[in-house]
Amino acid sequence: MQLTAKDVRLIELLKEQIEVEKRTLNTLAKAEDEAKETAVRLVFMQMRLDTWKHQKFLEGMIDMLTQTPCDEWSAKVSRYTGRVRLERHFEALIKDESDMVELTSRALELIEDPLAEHLLLHLKEEEEKHTRALEKMIDLVKQAPLQSRKAQKGTDIVCETD
Ligand SMILES: [Fe+2]
Ligand SMILES: [Fe+2]
Question: What's the pLDDT at 149?
Answer without folding.
Answer: 54
